[in-house]
Design goal:
single chain; about 475 residues; alpha/beta; TIM Barrel; 7-stranded mixed beta sheet; two-stranded parallel sheet; 17 helices
Length: about 475
């Protein structure tokens, strides 16, 4: 039976176009008699969504068995194929967050879980994600032997080989031709060891025209999913079928664009603005400890607020409307403080808290969450804090120097937290002082007790230390990337 261990759905971020492509993908599976496919989307391109959309589009008459997988990314930038029998794979944050583990650490992590199956992808590929290029031949063979799985055939370069043949460049590019041959058929010196018990191969397809290549695995009944999974996780057949195709200019341009874009995302850690951890799809400023609490609060809040969210949705009130209202409320609150009307200021401040706290749940309820919305929410939170502290400074409730230092350190801490999340080196715990400072300002408005300046001093000292720690962490992460790139 034909098994494609390495397949990229490469779906559009727009559901309409993604679903249309899924339908076409299933047609290609049937057309080329592909018995089993592992959906190994790049970890930074939302593999859970790709797998779910493919499953949802599955035709009733389809016989192809689909398994969830990812193409994980190590801290060195090396690709490792990981798959399992069910989608519990996507709960493994160590694998789902790019560049969390080195190749050896990831290999050991996979080996510790019997439900996970791993294979070093295209180990001799000369491009950015090849293991040998990143860590050397000996270390690559060690990783293969430790993991016990390796991709011995990959047809991702067949288009390049066809182009060389068409342009009569094989004689000039002899070295490149040899490297292509080794990617398409890995030399046995890399995997001929007793502990290597899994040989994989795949199309590495990103486009419909590439579907149809794969390993020839001893057949088992496709109706028995468990038996199929056992067969593909223990395959030692070396027979690989490569689908032939013509060279089309449009296809060549599309392939070049896709691969180049993925290379840039990896190199610059863009990750399409997202870290796919199954918990925080968009940019956030939470530390790991905060995130756990925030996610639980979000789940409970949506349940509690469902009647209110339904009411707002019925009257076509959008998250954007609530965000605009919250900004207006905090501005009016400060204006009322300036004119000496504390109770009106408190009322506007409470409205700010209400509208701001409803914007996020409403976006999730209306399925309108986006990267732009996440960033907007962060900005609004900080605008409220900056406005409140500036007002306290203007009213001489706090000194100008300490107010300025606090805002500078807070903004720096915010930027560093977001950046560390982006580069896959999140800080475990950050104590956020925004709500405490706002509470101190509110206390002054109501009782005339002024604890604002002591609070600002205490948290400024704390943030100075934390910022230095996070800067050091960021520099170490960047140096680690530079070392693996040289």
């Amino acid at each position: 039976m034909l098994v494609d261990y390495h397949f990229h759905p490469n779906l559009s971020k727009y559901d309409y176009f993604a679903k249309r492509k899924c339908v076409k993908i299933w047609r290609e599976f049937a057309r080329h008699n592909v018995a089993v496919v592992v959906a190994t989307e790049h970890v930074f391109k939302n593999p859970p969504r790709a797998y779910q959309l493919l499953q949802a589009a599955r035709p009733n008459e389809a016989t192809t068995v689909l398994f969830p997988g990812i193409e994980a990314l190590t801290s060195e930038g090396i690709d490792i194929i990981v798959f399992s029998q069910d989608d519990q794979l996507y709960q493994h944050q160590k694998l789902m967050v790019p560049r969390q583990l080195s190749e050896l650490e990831m290999v050991q992590y996979i080996k510790q879980d019997s439900n996970l199956v791993g294979s070093i992808a295209h180990p001799v590929l000369w491009a950015h994600s090849g293991s040998e290029r990143r860590i050397g031949k000996n270390a690559t063979i060690t990783a293969i032997r430790t993991l016990g799985g390796v991709e011995i055939s990959n047809s991702c370069l067949k288009g390049f080989v066809a182009a060389m043949r068409l342009l009569k460049l094989e004689g000039i590019l002899k070295k490149q031709r040899k490297q292509c041959a080794e990617v398409m058929a890995l030399p046995t010196e890399y995997y001929d060891f007793p502990e290597v018990k899994l040989y994989t191969g795949g199309s590495d397809a990103h486009a419909l025209d590439e579907i149809g290549s794969g390993m020839e695995v001893p057949a088992v009944p496709l109706t028995d999913r468990t038996a199929v999974f056992q067969a593909i996780r223990t395959n030692q057949s070396t027979q690989f079928t490569t689908r032939r195709f013509g060279v089309h200019p449009y296809f060549a341009l599309y392939k070049f664009y896709t691969v180049a874009r993925e290379a840039l995302i990896k190199a610059f850690r863009l990750y399409e603005g997202k870290l796919y951890q199954n918990d925080d799809a968009f940019t956030n400023y939470y530390s790991e400890a905060e995130k756990e609490a925030v996610l639980e609060i979000r789940r409970q809040r949506v349940i509690f607020l469902k009647p209110v969210l339904n009411f707002l949705t019925y009257f076509r009130i959008s998250p954007t409307t609530l965000n605009i209202t919250s900004v207006a409320c905090i501005i009016f609150s400060v204006l009322q403080v300036n004119v000496g009307d504390p109770w009106d200021a408190i009322a506007y401040f409470m409205l700010y808290l209400l509208t701001n706290s409803l914007a996020g749940p409403l976006a999730r309820y209306q399925n309108l969450e986006s990267e732009a919305g996440a960033i907007t929410k962060i900005i609004i939170y900080q605008v409220a804090l900056i406005t409140a502290v500036l007002a306290a400074m203007g009213l001489e409730w706090a000194g100008n120097w300490i107010g300025t230092i606090y805002l500078l350190l807070y903004t720096t801490m915010l930027w560093l937290t977001i950046t560390l999340n982006k580069v896959g080196a999140p800080i475990r715990l950050v104590i956020r002082s925004k709500n405490i400072v706002l509470a101190a300002i509110l206390l002054k408005m109501i009782t005339q007790l002024n604890y604002i300046e002591p609070v600002l001093w205490i948290f400024s000292a704390y943030m100075l230390v934390m910022n230095l720690i996070m800067i050091g962490r960021l520099l170490l992460t960047v140096r680690g990337v530079e070392k693996t790139s040289t």
